Task: inverse folding
């Protein structure tokens, strides 16, 4: 799969990804290359993927929207921190907790509303094709 992640703080691309673990509302969900086309909300957490060389890599992602269409995966999120090669998942979990999950109540409600709007937009866009 080809993975493209865009955020306000940077972007990331990876080609030849064989497995992707995305943080969702009720835990992580796994996406494989032949998985059906899929759209979902992403919650703050650690995204893991298997690179072309077979190594498991990690990224810290804030909330956003995830779309899989064919062998292309697109993720748009508020913040992104790319883990260094050899970084451990637990190191990035601390980063997620410190930087992404410390929100006041107003910001949480605003983010929920924006996420619903983004999800609805993507769903309607995919229905048009």
Result:
């Amino acid at each position: 799969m080809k993975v493209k992640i865009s955020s306000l703080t940077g972007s990331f691309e990876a080609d030849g990804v064989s497995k992707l673990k995305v943080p969702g509302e009720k835990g992580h969900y796994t996406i494989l290359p032949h998985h059906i086309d899929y759209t979902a909300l992403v919650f703050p957490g650690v995204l893991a993927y298997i690179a072309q060389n077979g190594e498991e890599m990690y990224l810290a992602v804030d909330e956003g929207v995830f779309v899989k269409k064919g062998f292309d995966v697109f993720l748009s999120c508020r913040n992104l921190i790319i883990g260094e090669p050899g970084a451990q998942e637990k190191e990035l979990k601390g980063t997620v907790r410190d930087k992404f999950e410390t929100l006041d109540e107003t910001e949480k409600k605003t983010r929920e509303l924006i996420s619903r709007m983004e999800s609805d937009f993507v769903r309607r866009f995919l229905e048009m094709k």
Summary: Residues 2-128 form a domain with the ATP Synthase; domain 1 fold (CATH 2.60.15.10). Helices lie at 89-100, 105-128. The chain has one domain: 2-128.
